[in-house]
Amino acid sequence: MSDTLVLNADGMPVSVLPLSTITWQESIKYMVLEKADVLLWHENWIVRSARWETQVPSVIMLRDYMKVKNSIRFSRNNVYIRDNGQCQYCGSHIERKDATLDHVTPIAKGGKTTWENCTTACSPCNATKSDKAGWKPRLKPYKPDYYDLVNKRKKFPFQVRNQDWLQFIV
Ligand SMILES: [Zn+2]
């Protein structure tokens, strides 16, 4: 899903949470339909059909402004951002890839997978917690609003497919 970065007509990414990206096939469709201009190409990536060949766009900018709904999806990664990348039990900073999603009220006891019942935990805490009652996360889990989360996200480096994209994002 992350071949091509999509910028809105104002030059900003259409969305940052998650980052607005599309497949290379979609990016070529935008280009052929003249709905977007290509700002950057993928070097050394050319696709061919029987009748044409083209370089693959790396960054495109829409010609018409796309209105966006500023809503955020529940995901492990967004919970991680809400929780400042910290284990909510021991307080240690954890890498995104090592973070686990902990259900404050376990699923087995009727807990749901929601913003209000999920928190970030390191694996040792997550493993220990399951047999200890009464562990409470430091930050009471809540549903963040878009700007809250976008602000918190600024503390983390963007993980992008191409370093070239950073100039359009930050
Ligand atoms: Zn921990």
What form results from the Cα inertia axes? elongated
- Please tell me the total number of domains: 2
Write the element-wise H/E pattern from the N-terminal end onward.
Answer: EEHEEHEEHHH
Instruction: Write out the strand line-up for the largest beta sheet, numbering strands in chain order.
Output: 2-1-4-3
Helix amount: 10-25%
Q: Report the portion of residues in β strands.
A: 15-25%
Distance between the termini: 21 Å
- The total count of helices amounts to 5
Q: Identify the bound ligands.
A: zinc ion
- Average pLDDT works out at 91
Uncertain residue ranges:
none
Which structural class is indicated by helix and strand composition?
Answer: alpha+beta
The description of the largest β-sheet is:
4 strands, mixed
Rg on CA atoms, Å: 20 Å
- How many runs of DSSP E, i.e. beta strands? 6
3D structure, described in words:
21% of the residues lie in helices and 22% in strands. It has 170 residues and is α+β, with helices and mostly antiparallel strands. It folds into two domains: 4-70 and 151-169, no CATH class; 76-144, DNA Binding (I), subunit A (Orthogonal Bundle). Strand 3 (36-48) and strand 4 form a beta hairpin. The radius of gyration is 20 Å and the shape is elongated. The protein binds zinc ion (ZN). Zinc ion is lined by residues 87, 89-90, 92, 121-122, 124-125.
How do the helices and strands line up, and which of them pair or pack?
Blueprint: E1 4-7, E2 21-22, H1 24-32, E3 36-48, E4 53-62, H2 76-82, E5 100-103, E6 118-121, H3 123-129, H4 146-153, H5 166-169
Parallel strand pairs: 1-4
Antiparallel strand pairs: 1-2, 3-4, 5-6
Bound molecules: zinc ion.
The site of zinc ion has 8 residues, from helix 3.
